[in-house]
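hey can u run this one w/ zinc ion bound, need the structure tokens asap thx
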Amino acid sequence: MADSFIQTELHELRKEYQKELPGSELIACHPVSVRVKMTKTEYRQFDVCLQFPEGYPNTSIVVELKSKTIPEKLRDGLTKVCDTETKKLCGKPQLLPVLRLLKQFLDDNPFAICSEELSFIKKELITEKDQIKVKQKSGSISMTIYQDNYYFSFKMIVPEEYPAKQVCIQKVDDNFPKLFSTVFFNQAIEMARQCVEPPLKKKPKDAPFEPKPSLKLIAKFLVEDCIRRYPRDPCQICKDNAFPPDPKSVVTVPSNDRYIERVYCCHLFHHGCLDTFMKTPPFTGGKKCPGCKQRIYHDKWNITPRLAEERWAHQEAKRRELAEVVDFLE
Ligand SMILES: [Zn+2]
Ligand SMILES: [Zn+2]
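ok here u go:
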């Protein structure tokens, strides 16, 4: 009786799988085991192995999922979901229902391929104050990160072809100084692009280029290296926070002493502090960032050490002259 029950299910599967499971390949279809290769995209795919245990259909069909791209943890979770479903089907056909369930999961779940990256984001990057909204169907993750009185909202969309294509990043809203939110954003987009496009200049020793997952990388960069960092980053000269505590009092006039300058090494300075520093000796070897000793390159102070020296000498001479005048007047 069990044998003919299984035979009927196998027959049904052979007849229906193309219609019921489009894009799948039936690799084996025997009473011993059934194997189906399910593919949504190059990366979103798994092999489903099914076995009829003793006593089937009064016992649950045994499901095993194999995949090089879908993380083990997710496959385990999915196997458990299948177990729960098949228990409900005790005594009834289970083969097609389980396959349908798995197919649906693969179709509806762009996050299947990046479940570990997503759980990293939820566990390591987000605090209770922040907000995260994950939409399975559209593959989008919306995040609002709060740091002191600053906030930054952005959206990441995982494309169908992920990770061969990079996550798409969209700016939503923020109260960071405008220049900063633009820079964060452009850098994130550039990093994501580099995950999937080979460098133009290839070094001969480089291994062949393989696209890398970009979701965790980008989220970590934006949250840790940008949004959490800058509201507390000190001016490298006076050591006060470069960002004012109240975002509304961010200075927008570039020549104002409290205007925030971000230099090549990513350290911050108050415009006034940096201006004095750049115009004060020693100049030999160029001015270096006190925080990291990297040379400071900045459009506003783009002059040679020699010119800086001359200007400083000139200014000193003027200051001395003025001091003499003051002495004279006293
Ligand atoms: Zn300062
Ligand atoms: Zn620096």
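Helices lie at 2-20, 72-88, 95-108, 115-125, 178-196, 215-227, 271-278, 305-329. anyway lmk if its weird
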